[in-house]
Amino acid sequence: MPPDLRWGGAFFVSGGHVSYKLGLIFSTTGSYAALGQSAFAGALGAIDKVARASGIEIEPVIRDPGGDPALYAAMTSELLDAGVRNIIGAITSWSRKDMIPILERKGGLLWYPCPYEGFECNDHVVYLGAAPNHHVVPAIDWIASQRMSRAYLVGSNYVWGWETLRLARDRLQAYGIEVVGERFIALGSDQHDHVIDEITALSPDCVVNSLIGPSSVGFVRSLGARDRSRQGKAGHLISFNQTEADLDELGAHADGLLSVGSFFAEDADPALCAVARAHAPNGRVSAFLATAHAAVEIFADSVTRAGTDAPEAVFRAASMAPVSTALGAISIDPVMRHAALAPRVAIARDGRFRVIERATAPVAADPYLSRQGLPVVDRRRPVPRPQLRIVK
């Protein structure tokens, strides 16, 4: 008898095995390749794991935009036209926002695995990365706990940099911490000498760095080379998105860098470490790798519950109950569509991150910071109102 072969959207049943197509859109080449490679490795490792552990086979349909923002929308359209209904991918918020109109028009679902700046909730996205209350808020609270009084802000010149530093500035000023400077650098650019000149002249207690990719790597290395007095001092440099993905490139210049996120390699179990060795070019676990791995695990669990890969049914299944993943048990809010995560504060030393603070339980995402409020340090002093910022 011929094998049982029935097509159903982006999946088919053959010989008792169920197979689903899953789009993977990650820039594994280009300006932020290290981040894309790490996330892509996590997804591939999880696809292998799911195939071994169940009768579900996931067929990855892979695209590499090479860091070119113009290609994300076109590749999303191409995959959806080919019958792919679910996509894991995008690194930058720029690319995610370019993909959303295509997802809306063609009925796809994006599983977004990266930390982002918040202030978004879309019916065609599942937000699995850290939201602002998972990274900006703990980072600024840590700065205040160290009695720092002067901070300098630098970020990539697009929505991630603008929004994370806006939130950081508001919270710093509420604590009474002076923001002595704020500058933005073009995405992917290494032209930052003028920023480092200003930092060395102003000598702030800490530098809040919201750059990404090679811009961040070049900046951290150059700042370390120019101002050696900072190197090794805990929290002299603060990041909302630094992970192990490109920590090797920073070398000793990363010592003392404080990062806040949903996962660090010291929390990885042996199975996730094996995934990194098998699939990641640098062999290291990062939050990007772990979250993309978790995205595949949740997708596989959800299509099993739903019996289909139709986006509405898959999301409904994903938000019904916690799913065991590489990040731990993950719950997704059925209304806000964000994952609850346990924030960690970590400091880089000798090429690795060491966690110094961690939440005792997952914290519900608060993408609009509607439940946070600004700190009131002195009740006799009104909380400062947001000010017009003129930055360069």
From TrEMBL:
Gene3D superfamilies documented for this protein: 3.40.50.2300
Pfam assignment, any one: Peripla_BP_5
InterPro entries on file: Peripla_BP_I
UniProt-listed PANTHER family: ALIPHATIC AMIDASE EXPRESSION-REGULATING PROTEIN (PTHR47628:SF1), PTHR47628
Protein name in UniProt: Amino acid/amide ABC transporter substrate-binding protein (HAAT family)
Organism: Pseudoroseicyclus aestuarii
